[in-house]
Design brief:
There is one protein chain. The protein has helices at about 15-20, 30-40, 45-55, 60-70, 75-85, 100-110, 140-150, 170, 185, and strands at about 1-5, 90-100, 115-120, 125-130, 160, 175-180, 190-195. It is α/β, with parallel strands linked by helices and about 210 residues long. It has one domain (about 1-205): Rossmann fold, CATH 3.40.50. Strands 4-3-2-1-5-6-7 form a 7-stranded mixed sheet, with helices on both faces. It is globular, with a radius of gyration of 16 Å.
Length: about 210
Amino acid sequence: MKLCVFDFDSTLMDGETIDFLAKPLGLGEKIAEITERTMQGELDFFESLTTRVTLLRGLQEEKVNEICHNLPYMPGAKETISQLKQRDYKVVVFSGGFRNATSYAKDILGFDADFSNTLHVKDGLLSGLVGGEMMFDHSKGDMLQRIQTLLGITKDETIAVGDGANDRSMFAHASKRVAFCAKDILKKEANIIIDTKDLTQLLGEI
């Protein structure tokens, strides 16, 4: 058994979920700017996430799900996951984004499990609060170590694929570290770099 862990936003999905959610509120540019600075490693992930989710307060849960169920997936995402599973990989998603998007994508893209965050809803509206498994800069690395222990998989049997600063923590526990259309801060820690929006290129690198 082998393990491949993907980031979701801007890796399996072409864009950032929270930026899509901000658009109906007229906050697209404001939140996108914070997101970009966070992925560049300029802002603390936890502080950035909670700040951005606060700005989403009042958005209807129905609208959240409508947006999350119509996100554009990265070219080659489904085909790449299918090929990895044929090669006996377990494929897992770690996302600093939200379950509304990752759990829905699980059945479409075919990965085995998703770990992300949950938007708090009250009376059918976002309350501006968030909690979950991927709240901090170190969360992906921490979860990766626990999954490796649970499955009996070593660092040498692990691939991590991501694009932003909060993917660095999982790179520390993977022998193949793939920076996919990534920020420079992550490329510095990668040993495989793919700069074309085509995830099938990963298959030729592993």
